[in-house]
Design goal:
Layout lengths: L7 H20 L10 H14 L2 E3 L11 E5 L2 E3 L13 E10 L2 E10 L5 H18 L9 H13 L3 E2 L5 E3 L6 E5 L16 E4 L2 E3 L5 E3 L7 E3 L5 E3 L2 E5 L4 E3 L8
Antiparallel strand pairs: 1-4, 2-4, 3-12, 4-5, 6-10, 7-8, 9-14, 10-13, 11-12, 14-15
Bound molecules: 2-amino-4-trifluoromethylsulfanyl-butyric acid and cobalt (II) ion (2 copies).
């Protein structure tokens, strides 16, 4: 399958949806606090998205049951919101994908609950930096593999590992389109970026081993195999003539 070049009209639609996804993550700050369950946060996210005329893309996607993925601590991604009560010191990822007028916007970020350890803070900072490093590789003529090459180089230089079982992806008209955007890749590998391509970068950085294990019961929640922390940031990105635009970056915080 070829990588879609989005039309100006599609870009406008994806821009609006991405803006809403980014705004939703901002709105959720007040709810990602000690004592709240991840299910409660999911409910607030779904309300917000629907109040803005959009649909949460994850709900019903391959039978996924919730409006968001909420992944605390050793959960890498795809955490199904449940009765887990967030507590002081937790690091929590919330991932929101909106469908607005048929267009998809996909983003996630970390939230620190109360006071977190220096160990956790460093990992969160590293994951944020990995996304920035990925963005730095987004320009017309560059190859997708350079995103993963640079992210992996940086993460491993800090003693962290990069999850390879989940990747970034083309996005916009569908939830997951070509290309697959690897967060570990050989230098100068993969397709060439062109204006009008839209995709995500969403590195998952582990404090310990890279491997993920998916929960046997719920078939979604992916955890680190060693129980150590994992952190992730994600933007939906448009390649332009000048470089890139991070469409979900509404508040310039990451
Ligand atoms: N939003 C996730 C991503 O970044 C995908 C979640 S799919 C789900 O690609 F089914 F787990 F929700
Ligand atoms: Co994504
Ligand atoms: Co996502």
């Amino acid at each position: 399958m070829a990588i879609k070049i989005k039309t100006p009209e599609q870009i406008e639609g994806i821009r609006e949806s991405s803006k809403l996804a980014g705004t939703t993550l901002k709105y959720l700050e007040q709810f990602v606090i000690a004592g709240n369950t991840t299910k409660f946060i999911d409910t607030k996210a779904e309300e917000f998205v629907r109040d803005h005329g959009a649909i949460p893309a994850t709900k019903g996607y391959n039978s996924y049951p919730a409006a968001t993925c909420i992944s605390p601590n050793d959960v890498i991604c795809h955490g199904i919101p449940n009765n887990y009560e967030i507590k002081d010191g937790d690091i929590v990822n919330v991932d929101v994908t909106t469908i607005l007028k048929g267009y998809y916007g996909d983003t996630c970020r970390m939230y620190s609950v109360g006071t977190i350890s220096e160990y956790a803070q460093k990992l969160v900072d590293a994951a944020k930096e990995c996304l920035q490093i990925g963005l730095g590789q987004c320009f017309t003529g560059n190859q997708f593999g350079n995103i993963g090459f640079e992210i992996n180089k940086y993460a491993t230089s800090l003693g962290y590992s990069v999850v390879y079982e989940f990747c970034g992806h083309g996005v916009g008209i569908k939830f997951h389109e070509d290309p697959q955007v690897d967060h570990i890749a050989p230098k100068n590998s993969g397709p060439v970026m062109k204006p009008g391509m839209i995709f995500t970068i969403e590195p998952m950085i582990n404090a310990g081993k890279a491997r993920a294990k998916v929960d046997k019961k719920d078939k979604w929640t992916a955890r680190t195999i060693d129980g150590k922390l994992s952190a992730q940031y994600e933007h939906t990105i448009l390649i332009t003539d000048e470089g890139y635009e991070a469409l979900t970056n509404v508040y310039n915080e990451y």
